[in-house]
Model the fold of this input.
Amino acid sequence: MPTVVLPLHDPAGLAAALADGLGGRIGEVEMRRFPDGETYLRLGGDLNGADVVIACGLDAPDAKIVPLYLAATTARDLGARRVLLAAPYLPYLRQDCRFHDGESVSAPAMARLLSSFLDGLATVDPHLHRISALGDVFAVPAAAASAAGAIADWIGRNVPDAFLIGPDGESAQWVSRIAALAGRPFAVLDKTRRGDRDVEIRLPVGGDAPSGTPVFVDDIVSTGRTLIAAAAAVAPAFGTPPVFAGVHALFADDAYDALKRAGAAAIVTCNTVAHPSNAIDIHPALTKAVARLLAGEVSG
Done:
């Protein structure tokens, strides 16, 4: 079956990488806003019987979900055999339970929405906390590619004396995997909260002694405040400016400039969300995840 990749809010040339890696072609997408703010969308070319892969970055998602729905349903109307989504960053996963009465639990809600008009999806390092796997909330096949190998390769080439650091317990899964692949020591910081504005961050007792260049690793860099606090607390033990490495470069407000002001030797992220800090290419890993979906190797 032919594979057609549709570039929709295409982050960092993902559609071209997918088409090349999957042996497909790039489809035609015409999209614009009507004066009233609604979306006009037209798909060109023959989609009858094709496997359609929509390349769509879903950072800042609220303005992108409706065009994504229109593209998927239009492709199906035009005869597509399957419609898959390649979204390097998958939004709305962090709210996975109700902390206060009446709150929307957005993770399963977004999963139900996407499952209602897609035949499958692939993403990179989804932010799963209380959800063990994407299949727990998605009703269609969902594949998660890992950026760990690409980040480890970058560290090996650029920071050979790296000492990897996870800024808090939630980062342990990322930093331990990358450290193992890079063959470098690591630590996950202890964070003790004594009050709303009283938080202590420190290196754990025992383990590898801090030495070399500290490389702080996290999956999502949003406000950057946790990374900044972690660097201020432990970087002096190394005597070397820190490197910040993240998967998804969300960088809310002035977060990027704040990290630079914190004395970073480098700030690098993956190209899941287009940003000047993108230095690590995860398109090959995401392409492999989409190929698994097309081959039927991921169950729903």
The radius of gyration is 20 Å. Residues 65-77 form the longest helix (13 residues). The chain has a mean pLDDT of 90.
